[in-house]
Amino acid sequence: xxxxxxxxxxxxxxxxxxxxxxxxxxxxxxxxxxxxxxxxxxxxxxxxxxxxxxxxxxxxxxxxxxxxxxxxxxxxxxxxxxxxxxxxxxxxxxxxxxxxxxxxxxxxxxxxxxxxxxxxxxxx
Length: 124
Description:
The protein has a two-stranded antiparallel sheet with strand order 1-2. Strands 3-4 form a two-stranded antiparallel sheet. It has helices spanning 50-62, 68-82, 90-98, 105-123, and strands at residues 2-4, 24-26, 34-37, 44-47. Helix 1 runs antiparallel to helix 2 (68-82) and helix 1 crosses helix 4. The chain contains 4 helices and 4 strands, in the order ββββαααα.
C-alpha cells in the first residue's frame, strides 16, 4: 500500500499534491502515522510507522545473512518500543512479521525476548 506522507489520512487511497521529501512510502501496517509538531505548531514531521519498521529491520538483520549493524538497529528500535518511549501496536507488528514479504515472526520473537532481558538487567 502506498501513502503520501505529506498528508496522511485514515483512508489509504487518499493522496495529496503537497510534496514531501519522502514522497510516497510503501506500508503494510494498518495503523496511523504519528505526527510531531514543535510547541507553536508551525512545523511538524511525520515518522514512519514502527509496525512497518520493526519487521523490516529484523528482516535486514538476518537475511540474506546476519548483519550485526542492522541487528543492533532492530534492538534499539525494539528497546524504545518495549520501554514505552515509542508506542507500537504489537499485534500489527507481529502480523506484518508473519506476512510472506517478511516471514520473520520467530526472529522477531527471539529479539524481543533478548531485548526484554537486557532491559530488565539494566533496571536491576
